[in-house]
């Protein structure tokens, strides 16, 4: 029985090594790490990713799949739910580093199954809702910037769009402002401004065309 960490990383996201360290610090004994590289935020369905396909071929009954959070497993609610349930049908236990969630298909108690399935649905819906909120903030910022074109732009942001997207995602995962500042090389004050007014932060990027 193996414990496999699956990560999806980008150039500004946490490194594979950092994610593995986080998993080990949380108490996981990782036998193998598999990672796909892509943009921050929710990506494609797990089966559509090169290493995601490999993951499906590799995992066997009794194995444990570790992910930083459930949004690593799909682009939307359905993808995440389908991936977790498919692994459970195969006898694979899915565990998350954040909040230490465990999804195990071995139980046959109807009440425990109902609670587990409801939790999967809730976690997947939360991941998709955060992604949609981020997209909506981006659209609102761009629309406002277009309307205000030619007016005073205000101060130029000290962050770029990739950093902004990463900060928003890490905040949604419960990472503290000080930790995010260290990871992104931004000031803690900048992180707090993004946290407290994400639409204003997105609008500033749009105004400056960043």
Describe this structure in words.
- The protein has helices at 16-25, 50-58, 77-89, 110-147, 161-172, 177-184, 188-196, 198-207, and strands spanning 3-9, 32-37, 64-67, 93-96, 102-103.
- The protein has a five-stranded mixed beta sheet with strand order 2-1-3-4-5, sandwiched between helices.
- It is α/β, with parallel strands linked by helices and 210 residues long.
- It has two domains: 3-125, 3-Layer(aba) Sandwich (Rossmann fold); 130-207, no CATH class.
- Helix 6 packs across helix 7 and helix 7 (188-196) packs across helix 8.
- The chain is elongated.
Number of strands: 5
Largest sheet: 5 strands, mixed
CATH homology superfamily of the largest domain: Resolvase, N-terminal catalytic domain
CATH architecture of the largest domain: 3-Layer(aba) Sandwich
Low-confidence stretches: none
Helix content: 40-55%
Rg, Å, rounded = 19 Å
Do you know the CATH topology of the largest domain? Rossmann fold
Topology:
Blueprint: E1 3-9, H1 16-25, E2 32-37, H2 50-58, E3 64-67, H3 77-89, E4 93-96, E5 102-103, H4 110-147, H5 161-172, H6 177-184, H7 188-196, H8 198-207
Parallel strand pairs: 1-2, 1-3, 3-4
Antiparallel strand pairs: 4-5
Helix pairs in contact: 3-4, 4-8, 6-7, 7-8
Essential attributes:
210 residues, alpha/beta, Rossmann fold, 2 domains, five-stranded mixed β-sheet
């Amino acid at each position: 029985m193996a414990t496999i960490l699956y990560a999806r990383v980008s150039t500004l996201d946490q490194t594979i090594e950092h994610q593995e360290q986080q998993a080990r610090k949380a108490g996981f004994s990782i036998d193998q790490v598999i990672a796909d590289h892509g943009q921050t935020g929710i990506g494609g369905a797990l089966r559509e990713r090169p290493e995601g396909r490999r993951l499906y071929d590799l995992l066997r009954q009794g194995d444990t799949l570790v992910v930083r959070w459930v949004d690593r497993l799909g682009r939307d609610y359905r993808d995440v739910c389908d991936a977790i349930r498919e692994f459970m049908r195969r006898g694979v236990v899915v565990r998350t580093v954040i909040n230490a969630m465990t999804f195990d298909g071995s139980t046959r108690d109807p009440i425990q199954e109902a609670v587990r399935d409801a939790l999967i649905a809730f976690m997947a819906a939360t991941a998709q809702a955060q992604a949609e909120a981020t997209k909506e903030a981006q659209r609102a910022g761009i629309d406002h910037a277009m309307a205000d074109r030619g007016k005073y732009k205000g101060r130029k942001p000290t962050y770029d769009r990739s950093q902004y997207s990463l900060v928003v995602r890490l905040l949604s995962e419960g990472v503290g402002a000080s930790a995010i500042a260290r990871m992104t090389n931004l000031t803690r004050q900048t992180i707090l401004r993004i946290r407290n007014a994400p639409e204003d932060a997105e609008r500033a990027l749009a105004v400056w065309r960043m």
